[in-house]
Amino acid sequence: MVRRQALSLALAVMPFGVAFGAAAAGAGLSRWQASAFSLLVFAGSAQFAAVEIIGRGGGAPAAIAAGLLLNLRSLAFGLLMAPSLRGPWWKRAVWSHLMIDETTAVATGQDDPRWRRYGFLYTGVVLFVAWNISTVVGAAALSSASHLVTTAGIDATIPAAFLALLWPRLRDTDQRTTALLGGLVALALVPIAPPGIPVIAAGAVAVITWRVAAPPRAR
């Protein structure tokens, strides 16, 4: 199951990685810079936000701030996965590089802590390889197609795959209501809020809704 999920997610990630490579080249980054970006950052939405800012003439501080806002949710992922990723600090630091939505979703779908760890690491390695290969392809072969993401609808592939992975795990009405409210808040804020704010607001709404709906012992 874990391997099948990881491979399915890799298929969804690769077109997005190709589009990032093309967008990075269109923003003036060399193929080596685009590749290094994916190797060192490995955070799709944050990378796109940074490249868009750089392409419009923005500086590094603005690009870094946008990336940090978009990835604040990784703090929650880290707290969730910490019990399953025990080990020396240096090993946990390496593993943290794979802390993204998809790896956390696959991992938390496993009941046994050992399988959680396996799901996290296996999915992380598969997606890391797929993302970096596709980035190189996009930067080298599609440098003139910087608008590939929106024109081909590639920006919908990863959210769709993530939703397909997450939705079956929302087993009752309260959980699905919480998820829908968070999603609606994010959608409402996307046109008017800076990058990252819709994600933070949706997370806050989800937490508040859960606190209100959960029985006393679950709080």
Would you give an account of this structure?
The structure is a single chain. With 219 residues, this protein is mainly α. It folds into 2 domains: 2-154, no CATH class; 170-219, no CATH class. The chain is 73% helix and 0% strand. The chain has 12 helices and no strands. It has helices spanning 2-26, 31-40, 44-55, 60-70, 73-81, 89-95, 101-108, 113-141, 148-151, 157-166, 173-189, 197-213. Helix 1 (2-26) runs parallel beside helix 8 (113-141), helix 1 (2-26) runs antiparallel to helix 10 (157-166) and helix 3 (44-55) runs antiparallel to helix 4. The longest helix is centred in the middle third of the chain and has 29 residues, at 113-141.
In what range is the share of β-strand residues? under 5%
SSE sequence, one letter per element: HHHHHHHHHHHH
Low-pLDDT runs of 5+ residues are none
Radius of gyration, whole Å:
18 Å
As for the number of domains, it is: 2
Q: Residue share in helices? A: over 70%
Gross morphology is: globular
**How many angstroms does the end-to-end distance come to?**
31 Å
Strands, total number: 0
Structural class: mainly alpha
Which descriptors apply to this entry?
219 residues; mainly alpha; 2 domains
Describe the SSE topology.
Elements: H1 2-26, H2 31-40, H3 44-55, H4 60-70, H5 73-81, H6 89-95, H7 101-108, H8 113-141, H9 148-151, H10 157-166, H11 173-189, H12 197-213
